[in-house]
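Batch manifest, entry 17 of 40.
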Amino acid sequence: MADSPRYLVTGASGQLGRLVVEALAARVGAANVAAVVRDPAKAGALFPAGVSVRTADYDQPATLDSAFAGAERLLLISSNAVGSRTAQHRNAIEAAVRAGVRRIAYTSLLHADRSSLGLAEEHRQTESLLAASGLPHSLLRNGWYNENYVAGIAGALAQGKFHGAAAAGRISGASRQDYAEAAVVALVEDEAPLTVHELAGDEAFTLTEFAAELSRQSGRDIPYVDLPEAGYRQLLEAAGLPAPFAALLADSDAGAAAGALFDEGRALSRLIDRPTTPIAASIAAALG
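Output type: C-alpha cells
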C-alpha cells in the first residue's frame, strides 16, 4: 500500500497543503497518502512519517503522469502562479484522467461561478475543465483565510494603523486549518458526480472590527484606515509587493467591500463538525 497510496495532495509543501497532508494522514493512515511537491529536497521533514513524497511540476505533464500513477483520489490545490494557473490545472486534470484517478477535489474560490473578484476567473476556467473531464469532482470554494489579514499585523503595529480598501464589507474568514480539515472530509467522503462546497467562516467581520480586536488584544490603538482601491494598491507597491500581487490584493479588498467575501451558509462548520476559527483567535495566535 505504501507504494500505491490511495490519496494524493498536490502543492503539498505549501501552507495549506502541509495542513491537509497532516490531517489526511491522521484520518486514513500515512501509508495511504502521497504528498506531491516540486522540490522533494525541501519537503523531507514537512510530512508525517509514512507519507510518501512524489515529485511533479504542473508545467511538466510527464512528471504528473508518474506522480499520479495508482492513486484513486486527488486533491488539486490551486497553483499560486496567478495568470498561468488555468494551463497548469489543465495539465494536472488531463494527467489525472490518464492515470485513472477516480475523483478530484479542487480548491476553488467562494462563489467562483458569480464572484466579482479578479481571482475568480482562473478558478471558473478550472471548474469548466473539471466538468469537461468527465471525472467525478468536488469544488472546495474556499472563502478568505483569516491569515490573509493576520499577516498584516506586524506592519500595522509598526505603523500604528491598519490599511485596507474593504470599506464596511463583511468578510466570512476562517483559518487555513479549518479549510484543510474540510478538504480532507470532502476528499474522503464525497461520492456524487459533482459536489459543490461554498466554504466560509461562521463569524464575519469588517476590517474596522478587525482593527478594533487587534487594538484590544495588543493594548495599542490601531485604527482601520480605508483607502480607495488604487490608493491601497499604491501603498502595497510602496511596501515592496510586486505590482501584480498588489493589484490582486487591492482588487480583493474592493470586492470584499461589495460583499464578495461574505457567506452565511455555514457549510464549512458543518463539514468539519465544529465551529470555524474566529478572527479573534487567529489574532491571538499571531500575537502569541
